[in-house]
Amino acid sequence: SPKNKHQEMIDKINKVRTESTAASKGIALEKCIDAIHDKVDLTLSDSGEFYLQDGLAIDAMLVHRMAKILKNYKERQKYVQAFFDTKYGRLKMFGFMDYEFEKILVDVKSTERYYDGKYESNYQHVSYMMIAEKNNKPKTHFTYLVTDFEDIYKESYVLNQSDRDRMISSSEKLIEFIEENRHLITKHKLITELSRHQNLRKN
């Protein structure tokens, strides 16, 4: 319902934590992949089929298959940022990119159920491609490396002008939403930053 979607957006902005077994399993999977890349020992189950991570059993074969796909990365969990112009002033986009290769960016995803085009409407591939482009390090495409803990899927996207326009437009709408719901936002630093940018525009 519209009311639930409104609250979901408020919770996302306020970063309200929600417990999810799938999310926890995804985090454990990525820790295992990192351990393989860093040559750190992992704890095997008695059967030897699973790695035991954060109280969860992660398919060892799956970990090695994904680690092999990602092995030639240039940088991992790299902090990136860039500024973009909007009608409300400069917008800072930032985040930690899972894997950067010479020509592509890769984000690891896990899901309980996968279907083709699952991440097409995501803003993640758009924002990271825009940041790379702005920093004079353009990439040919962005790939989601996805697993449902049984199979592995790849979903790739290129950046085009309609993506850039959609990202800026959506960012402006988000700013408007935050302004309209200031009384519900508990992340005071966010409100302070918005107010500071407003004052800069007035002066």
Number of helices: 6
Q: Which oligomerization state do the chains in this entry correspond to?
A: single chain
Q: What is the number of strand segments?
A: 7
The poorly predicted ranges are 197-203
Report the end-to-end length measured between terminal Cα atoms: 41 Å
- Estimate percent helicity: 40-55%
Class derived from helix and strand content = alpha+beta
**Global morphology:** globular
Please list the strands of the largest sheet in the order they lie side by side: 3-4-5-6-7
Order of helices and strands: HHEEHEEEHEEHH
Strand content: 25-35%
Can you tell me about this structure?
By secondary structure, this protein is an alpha+beta fold. It has six helices and seven strands; from the N terminus they run H-H-E-E-H-E-E-E-H-E-E-H-H. It has helices spanning 2-13, 21-37, 60-70, 124-134, 161-180, 188-202, and strands at 50-53, 56-59, 75-86, 89-100, 104-110, 141-147, 152-157. Strands 3-4-5-6-7 form a five-stranded mixed beta sheet. A two-stranded antiparallel sheet has the order 1-2. A hairpin with a 4-residue loop joins strand 6 and strand 7. Helix 2 crosses helix 3. The longest helix is centred in the last third of the chain and has 20 residues, at 161-180. The N and C termini lie far apart (41 Å).
